[in-house]
């Protein structure tokens, strides 16, 4: 008889780590990958402008509310503050703004966060986390809108934006 014991890393449940198992972070049912690792269904808020102009940097603010008194078990076995993470699925053509295009006001709101694309060929899907929840329960994503003058396949319409967020450890 052979026993195989595995130990999941604390961070395996964050959207950034879901890249290994999911080609797309949004399932056909509409569920975001975060829902597969986190047992509870909690609200996440997003604030974006009603309209954006072509080739413009704007903010997408994701709020991940939770009770700040809650604790999670840390890697050392002690209790500590919860971490948070998020995935933001934008329309095709929208992407993370390059650093030289981000205004000082947006940079200040971003703090020291580092965002990345879900996959290199999916620049419209952004992930962040795990990051300290007490400091980053509100995350500002700097977004660059596409320019139809340079990308002929882009047309400005009404588009959906999907967001998923998590708090604490995943239970995957």
Q: What's the tally of helices?
A: 3
Please state the structural category.
Answer: mainly beta
Largest sheet: 4 strands, antiparallel
Elements, N to C (H/E)? HEEEEEEHEEHEE
Low-confidence stretches: 1-13
Domain Cytochrome f large: 14-168
GO molecular function: electron transfer activity; heme binding; iron ion binding
GO biological process, one term: photosynthesis
Main location: plastid
Key terms:
172 residues; four-stranded antiparallel β-sheet; single chain; mainly beta; disordered N terminus; 3 helices
Plain-language structure description:
The protein is mainly beta. It has helices at residues 34-37, 104-110, 133-136, and strands at residues 45-47, 57-63, 71-73, 79-81, 83-89, 95-96, 116-119, 122-132, 138-144, 162-167. The strands form 3 sheets. Strands 1-2-9-6 form a 4-stranded antiparallel sheet. A 4-stranded antiparallel sheet has the order 7-8-5-10. Strand 7 and strand 8 form a beta hairpin. Residues 1-13 have low confidence and may be disordered. Its cofactor is heme. The 4 large subunits of the cytochrome b6-f complex are cytochrome b6, subunit IV (17 kDa polypeptide, PetD), cytochrome f and the Rieske protein, while the 4 small subunits are PetG, PetL, PetM and PetN. The complex functions as a dimer. Belongs to the cytochrome f family. This is Cytochrome f. InterPro entries: Cyt_f (IPR002325), Cyt_f_lg_dom (IPR024094), Cyt_f_lg_dom_sf (IPR036826).
């Amino acid at each position: 008889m052979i026993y195989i014991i595995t130990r999941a890393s604390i961070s395996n449940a964050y959207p950034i780590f879901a890249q290994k198992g999911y080609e797309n972070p949004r399932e056909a049912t509409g569920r975001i990958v975060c829902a597969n690792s986190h047992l509870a269904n909690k609200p996440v808020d997003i604030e974006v402008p009603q309209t954006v102009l072509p080739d413009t940097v704007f903010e997408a603010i994701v709020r991940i509310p939770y009770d700040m008194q809650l604790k999670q078990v840390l890697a050392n076995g002690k209790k500590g503050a919860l971490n948070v993470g998020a995935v933001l699925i934008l329309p095709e053509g929208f992407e993370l703004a390059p650093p030289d295009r981000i205004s000082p006001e947006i940079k200040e709101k971003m703090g020291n966060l580092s965002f990345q694309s879900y996959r290199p060929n999916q620049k419209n899907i952004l992930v962040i986390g795990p990051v300290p929840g007490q400091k980053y329960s509100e995350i500002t994503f700097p977004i660059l809108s596409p320019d139809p003058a340079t990308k002929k396949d882009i047309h400005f319409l009404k588009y959906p934006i999907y967001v998923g967020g998590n708090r604490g450890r995943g239970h995957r």
